[in-house]
Amino acid sequence: MKNKQNLLPNLILLFFFLFTISLQAQRTGIKWSTDRAWNWYNSNPWICGFNYIPANAINYTAMWEKSGFSPDVIDKELALAAATGFNAVRVVLQFIVWEDDPMYFKDVFAKFLSICKKHGLEVMPALFDDCAFGINIDPSLGKQPEPLAGWYAWAWSPSPGRTMAADSTTWFRLEKYVKDIIGTFKKNSVIMAWDLYNEPRNTSLPLVRKVFKWAREINPTQPLTVCIFGNRELQDAIVENSDIITFHNYSPREPVEKTIQDLKKHQRPIICTEWLNRPRGSIVEEILPLFFEENIGCFHWGLVNGKTQTDLPWGHRPGDMPYRGIWQHDLYTSDFKMYSSYEIQLFKNYISKSKTRQIPAVKKGK
Fold first, then answer.
1. Is residue 22 part of a domain?
2. pTM higher than 0.70 for the full model?
């Protein structure tokens, strides 16, 4: 009898231990099964959207910070997107704006989501970004630089910046950011998926792994992804952890077709989260029909041309002005005029007819 009495407290402790482990397992997510990923994808219309930064913002720091956030501008531009037919938008967030004032950042991001919902747009936020097209490899708060005429996205601001991305002693701050943002919005129906890291550098692989881990611990209702990028080791880690497959490709139709066929081996939904580079042959009349035919979701770059000067090709510099070539990105001028009415009509036709798969012909013209 005495042995049984001593055993009871141990059994109770074991029960509570197992119960705690079970709760933790429920709170911490795992990579989605292929069935769950396809159920998610097939529950949505064909995704056709764009990468977005307001025309009055030179970088994403300017878009989100207290002196730059412009809901009226965003509302007008996203109304234009909705009128074009788009149903989704991809946007990069900025860590340093969150760290400066987390409550403010979550408030303006919630306002952004509200504007998107108003215009029937689902959102794919990207939490981090290693891209830098000018002299800045780290972001800074305060007034952002003005455009440098002739330089594509010269004042682009990475998130969190290459210095922090390389310094693991600072990552506890990034963990708080990831868990706060995803934790706050993990059930928001406007968010279609979390793009955890835009175009990570090879050296950012350890951080990419950590970001997936932190996001899984929050276990959002939306899928997680990072675009397949970099060397083989980085690509393998991305595929290993992503619920859905995303990629970037600014090439002509044939290389994009090859990429799609290569990615199908993963047997998961595929979305191209960046495309459209007219000088390089990534053009609407060739690439949009391909994505439609293959049922590949897509986000081209970008909407309204503005301070980022992404009408210019990569590598363009002030000494090469004036630029007389075709636009690289964007669909509308800063005063909302169509760069190409032909392209706009193609987008409208493919999006509006995506359910029936019947696409009327459009005569080519500027």
1. no
2. yes
